[in-house]
Amino acid sequence: MIFLILYFLLFALFLTYGVAWTLERRWKKYLLGEYYNGQTFIWTSCLFVVSYIGNIVVAFVIPGVFVYLQLIILSGAGIFIVLKEKSYKAGAALARRRLLDEAAGLEKALGTDPSNSFCHERLSELLEKLGDLEMAAAHAQTAAGLDPTEKNQWRLKAMRQEIEERRSAGGNGN
């Protein structure tokens, strides 16, 4: 009896962890949306309770269906994870394409007006999001030179510090 209760608990925890891990990848890996908005906690809490109680009820009321229920739940979780991952990849590709398009537009604008500090500042932000810290820092430095506000100076200092940290950690800064 205790073994079954422990199994139900571990099964519900495993299932909940898999779903939470998948939902959190949306912003942790693919940088889509905000970091935490509470939905993961709510959905996984409900899933844990339903899975745990449902397994107990089915195991004791209809024991012949229990194994099939486990397989259906695991299959559903696997399908959910695969579909969500594909959705996140598509969303990340679209977001990257938009960033690249905006960066290209800003570079074109800078070709016409190279002293536009706003374009340099925004291009620096976009390049940082795209992972090109060296070019982002160069545009941040230009923006800070054209518009020496505290915000631009602070941003440039933070970017240089991040580049140095990445270099010291063995990365190449990109």
Keywords:
174 residues, 6 helices, elongated, 2 domains, 0% strand, Serine Threonine Protein Phosphatase 5, Tetratricopeptide repeat, mainly alpha, 83% helix
Layout of helices and strands, plus pairs?
Elements: H1 2-28, H2 39-61, H3 66-112, H4 117-130, H5 133-146, H6 150-168
What does this structure look like?
With 174 residues, this protein is mainly alpha-helical. It has 2 domains: 2-91, no CATH class; 113-168, Tetratricopeptide repeat domain (Serine Threonine Protein Phosphatase 5, Tetratricopeptide repeat, Alpha Horseshoe), CATH 1.25.40. It is 83% helix and 0% strand. The longest helix is centred in the middle third of the chain and has 47 residues, at 66-112. The radius of gyration is 24 Å and the shape is elongated.
Binned strand content: under 5%
Structural class computed from helices and strand pairing: mainly alpha
Mean pLDDT score, rounded? 91
Calculate Rg over CA atoms. Answer: 24 Å
Please count the helical segments.
6
The separation of the N and C termini measures 55 Å
Order of helices and strands: HHHHHH
Give a short account of the largest sheet. none
Identify the overall geometry: elongated
Runs in which pLDDT lies below 50 for 5 or more consecutive residues are: none
What's the quaternary structure here? Answer: single chain
Helix content: over 70%
Count of structural domains: 2
Total number of beta strands: 0
